Amino acid sequence: MDFEPFLAHWRTNKNCSPRTITAYRSDLKMFQRFLDRTGIRRLTQVDHAVINQFIEHMRQQENSRFGRSGLAESSISRRLAAVSSYIDYVRATSNPKLRNPLDDLVRRWKRNNQPKPVDDMTIEKLLDGITVLRDRILVGLFLATGLRVSEMHSLDRNTIEFVLEEDEIGRDRITGAGEVVGKGGKRRKFYVDDETLRLYGQYLAARKDDHPALFLSERKQRMSVAAIQYTLRIWCKRLGVPHINVHRLRHTYATNLANANINSMVLRDLMGHSSLSTTAGYFELNATTLARGYHSAMEFRRQ
Fold first, then answer.
1. Measured between alpha carbons, how far is 95 from 239 in angstroms, rounded to an integer?
2. What is the value of pTM for the model shown?
3. Does residue 244 form part of some domain?
């Protein structure tokens, strides 16, 4: 099967990032290998039974990355979403009679879209235990900015600007801000709090090289997305912290701001989302916030 026209369509019309296109290509090639092993040569032969076999195949596949068998449900979901999109594309462009078995399949593999913030105790243990300054500011910036891992990878050492300003009572304070290009080529601003900014200043002062990238690997090259993810995974293992993927730090950022009563529209823009419904999937309100909101509303109603 030739997946390249489909990927070109997504690249051109859906404004997908190169990383997303690479992930889709990998997912579809995996599906192709599965079909080859099962002797299926045509897309019209793909039915409910084949999809169920593919799901079972992914659940039994060796996962050396995490030392277990089977892909995570979220990974299975992503691969099935790629297959479904490809079948829809073929149906729309060349075979209108083609059925997509994923349209009405019972989705036991459906992703759990509930927010997955990391609890405060785990975050505290992680930050207190990281002894490498680069890695500590890396995790700290994720929590302070809510950046995606691809956006963090793109940061240069001059991306974040230090700004001296006066607070409400006339005291000087230093704030930090920068810009990134996110999904869909959308440029947005992000901010850094005082505490993280001080640690960031220490990190820059300790750098003895002139490489423009903010985070460098041991080989003195810009840290790749995979290297950033690996760094967090290794520290979790060393410190006895349950595995945390980088994206959960983005959920933690959103949850912290939501529970600090940030305006939902502001949070949406800070996250780089197009809709509030997407942002709502990234945070959960704690009991204190819910109770505070309830009592405030009841007091207002009595006035």
1. 54
2. 0.67
3. yes
